[in-house]
Design goal:
This protein is mostly beta strands and about 160 residues long. It has a single domain, classed as Quinohemoprotein amine dehydrogenase alpha subunit, domain 2 (Lipocalin). Helix content is about 15%, strand content about 45%. It has an 8-stranded antiparallel beta barrel with strand order 1-2-3-4-5-6-7-8. About 40% of the residues are buried.
């Protein structure tokens, strides 16, 4: 029973981390941006990501004796200056997380070619930090991410909530 509780705790922690990772964007696109959003090469910069994005997270954690499938959602807010906050709800192998919405903070860096990286810190999680690679498309309204960390096969897709 103690071993089962340990695995459930590991699964819950992995779910939280994967949810956060899922909020990292991955997409490729060409943009027609305002001068304040253009990077050094005239396309993307941290300012490209500003506002709330709803993410769908999907994947598996392979670092356990048995692969743990995960599915979840996240809401990530980008400040346009390289900082982010997030809440997520990730289910592992059909088991909901111990906390309904798990909070996290982090940073992101978006290159002029609309690719980038992101790191999400989840307080108290053994899976933190979540390291991601991303791409951004559709004039900064669509993000695809992938977790760039051993034992994770996790990706996510995000859509801007308010098109302002």
């Amino acid at each position: 029973m103690t071993q089962l509780k340990s695995w459930l705790g590991l699964i819950a922690g992995a779910a939280i981390v994967c949810g956060l990772m899922a909020t990292v964007p991955t997409a490729h696109a060409q943009f027609d941006r305002s001068p304040s959003q253009r990077g050094a090469e005239g396309v993307c910069s941290n300012a490209t990501l500003r506002g709330a994005f709803a993410f769908d997270v999907d994947g598996a954690f392979l670092g356990a004796p048995v692969p743990l499938l995960l599915k979840g959602v996240a809401m990530t807010r980008f400040d346009g200056r390289g900082n982010l906050t997030q809440v997520d709800h990730i289910v592992f192998n059909g088991t909901p997380p111990p906390e309904d919405w798990t909070p996290a903070t982090g940073w992101y860096r978006l290159n002029a070619d609309c690719t980038g990286e992101m790191e999400i810190d989840i307080p108290g999680s053994p899976f933190s930090p979540v390291i991601l690679r991303l791409s951004v498309g559709a004039n900064g309204t669509h993000i695809n991410t992938v977790v760039s960390k051993a034992d994770y096969v996790v990706s996510s897709t995000g859509t801007k909530v308010n098109q302002d």
